[in-house]
Structures are given as structure tokens and as C-alpha cells.
Amino acid sequence: MRKPLSLAQSAKLSIIMILALVMAGCAYLGGGYGEDATFTAVEEGGTKVWKGGGAVDLKGRSSMTLKVVNTLGADHGFSIDSMKVQEVIKAGEERTITVPAGNIDTSVREHRVYCQLHPKHGAASLTVTK
Ligand SMILES: [Cu+2]
Questions:
Q1: Those residues with Cβ within 8 angstroms of residue 40's Cβ, 6 or more apart along the chain or in another chain
Q2: Domain assignment of residue 105, given as a range
Q3: Pair 69, 111 in one domain
Q4: Ligand 1 centroid vs 122 CA: distance in angstroms?
Q5: Disulfide-capable partner of 64 in 9, 26, 36, 111 (CB 3.0 to 4.6 Å)?
């Protein structure tokens, strides 16, 4: 016969189960299938740049996911005007941003990805086809 769990033990157990569920949910929502594009704020030859981008085919999809990583020691902006995106990514932060297809300006093919906080911060670009 197993000893019945004490109140503290069963409370601990349910917290662990809740945590496991939350983590599974996050993995699912956070695009366990991978992001459409990744952008990383890095410093190259004394200049800060957003590195990354590429091309995304949005045909038949309702949104896309961007992974944004700031490897630098200060906060940096992450803006894409033609996608209604404007965020501040903290030093060392990694974030996944979901852009609804309806927010993407279809008259633009190459979207400019830039830092709204620092005019000299190099921009990247993201090509989207629909
Ligand atoms: Cu910046």
C-alpha cells in the first residue's frame, strides 16, 4: 500500500503539473514549428546592426512569427513600419513576435527592419510574398 501524499506533497505535485502544462503551452504558442525569420542585434566593427531577415511566403497563412534576439548590453528598438511593429527589446532579451497577416502592408515587398531608438543602428530587411 502506498502512503497517501501529505498536503504539502500534493500541493508540490500540482504546482509541478501546472508548470509542465504552462511550459508545453508556451512551446506550442511560441512556434514549436520554428520561426519564419530571426533578427539579432549585434555589433560589427563598432556599428550596431540588426542582422537577419530573409524571405517569407505567407500564402494561405494568417500570421508569421519573428524571433528577435538582442545580444547587446543596452536596449534596442525593433520596428517594421509596414507591419505595425514597434517594440523595445531589452539587453540580452530574446522575444518571439507574432505579426498578423492583416497588419502587413501588401504594397511593400521588402520591409525595413530598424531600431527606432538609434538612427545609426543598421537596418535589416524582410521580404514577404503573399
Ligand atoms: Cu539600437
A1: 50, 51, 52, 68, 69, 70, 71
A2: 37-129
A3: yes
A4: 8
A5: 36
Amino acid found at 37: A
Q: Is the pLDDT of residue 5 over 90?
A: no
The CA 48 to ligand 1 mean position distance, Å, reads: 7
Model pTM score = 0.74
Q: How far is the CA of 99 from the centre of ligand 1 (A)?
A: 21
Work out the number of other CB atoms within 10 angstroms of the CB of residue 51. 15
CA of 79 to the centre of ligand 1 (A): 10
Nearest to 100, CA basis, from 124, 121, 128, 123: 128
In this predicted model, what pLDDT tens digit does every residue of 58-106 receive, in sequence order?
999 999 999 999 999 999 999 999 999 999 999 999 999 999 999 999 9
Phi, psi of 56 (to 5 degrees): -125, 130
> 64 C-alpha to center of ligand 1: Å?
23
